[in-house]
Amino acid sequence: MKSDKTLIEQILDRDNLNSAFKKVKKNKGAAGVDAKDVEATRLYLKENGLEIIHLAREGKYKPQPVRRVEIPKSNGGKRKLGIPTVTDRVIQQAVVQKLTPIFEKQFSEYSYGFRPNRSAHQAIEQARSYIEEGYTYVVDIDLEKFFDKVQHDKLMALIAKTIDDKPTLKLIRRFLQAGIMENGVVTVNREGTPQGGPLSPLLSNIILNELDKELEKRGHRFVRYADDCNIYVKSIKAGERVKVGVTQFIERKLKLRVDEEKSAVGKPNARVFLGVSFYRKKTRVYVPIKSKERFEMKLKKLTNRNWGVSMEFRIMKINQLIQGWGNYFKVGDIKKYAEKIDAHTRRRLRACRWKEWKKPKTRYKNLIKLGVSKDKAKRCANSRKKYWRISKSPQLDFALNNEYWQKLGLKSLYNVIS
């Protein structure tokens, strides 16, 4: 049933705003430039909510600048984020909740990023199906600093083709132009949609939907996840031709830049898409060594025996890492790797536990409790072997076995991916 409310009224509806606040609260996240966390914002909105709604309805609401933060990227660089205040995140989320159903109807079947009921796994599966169909070369298009380079006028013109509600359009433009605070100085935001707010992913999909339409019009097999776009072709020659044509479209029509150094045409096993590669005739998903190395480095830190935390806390953090990494990369061919990681993690934890027990007397008592014979427990407890060597001893392997770690709640990467 069509609402008789204007779009801005639907956005500012109490139920929609309450739902938006709950979503922002659930997502947690840091405070913006006003230093107000979620709870402080809740109290602030209780007192000032009606005034904010009135200003937004009249097209007079002014969002505060976003707080610039930088987070490390896997390639060693820095990713710039712009963190809006919690108040602004609530309003952005309210906008997203009403705009998403409108624009979803327009979006491509082959766009998977930041959309309801769509995931990176589905994008990977789509890419795999193209390769199995014989499209064994990939045109990997990398957009240069996409979120920082989107032109506001171009974006607003695209939104205005669908949305004719002036207060809503004004509100979106105000968010785009809110400015960025860095080291106490606010700079005007003349282009870009800073990553960090709920609105940015939807806006990125709106502008890149133009690319999707063009690729569909040209009959290309493609997969796009946010600004990560791969086009699948049958030959290197076709790939080079497609790369030139698509680059021209992106730069001339969308006014965005293609990163020539990172964009390339090649075999899928030589390119990384959403953290994975593809290999062999019967296409299988391969997790690149770099992805594994980053995971192992994080695991190494969490199992460092010099980290002075309780075993319960250590296992909780390990479980979070294993669950997150495993859920994402379970699309890959990593069962043997998971078994190796599980065994290695348990060994490192045995070394941690051995160090915790410290004194030979404590070690002896604990080994006896765990079923080791007195004679073997005595020899093991008084051993002068270093932590890493003793962690592989038959006595410690028997005492601190798989069942022991399961009782403490340690998750298995193998079980997560199975």
Write the layout of secondary structure elements.
Elements: H1 7-11, H2 14-27, H3 38-57, E1 66-72, E2 78-83, H4 86-104, H5 120-132, E3 137-142, H6 146-149, H7 152-160, H8 166-176, E4 180-182, E5 185-187, H9 199-217, E6 221-225, E7 228-233, H10 236-252, E8 264-266, E9 277-279, E10 284-286, H11 289-302, H12 311-329, H13 335-357, H14 360-369, H15 374-381, H16 387-390, H17 394-399, H18 402-407, H19 413-417
Parallel strand pairs: 1-4
Antiparallel strand pairs: 1-2, 3-7, 3-8, 4-5, 6-7, 9-10
Structure in words:
The protein has helices spanning about 5-10, 15-25, 40-55, 85-105, 120-130, 145-150, 150-160, 165-175, 200-215, 235-250, 290-300, 310-330, 335-355, 360-370, 375-380, 385-390, 395-400, 400-405, 415; strands spanning about 65-70, 80-85, 135-140, 180, 185, 220-225, 230-235, 265, 275-280, 285. By secondary structure, the protein is an alpha+beta fold. The strands form three sheets. The chain has a four-stranded mixed β-sheet with strand order 2-1-4-5, with no helix packed on it. β4 and β5 form a beta hairpin. About 35% of the residues are buried.
First-to-last CA distance: 44 Å
* Low-confidence runs: none
Count all strands and give the number.
10
Helix content: 40-55%
In what order do the strands lie side by side in the largest sheet? Answer: 2-1-4-5
Question: Mind summarizing the main beta sheet?
Answer: 4 strands, mixed
Count of DSSP helices?
Answer: 19
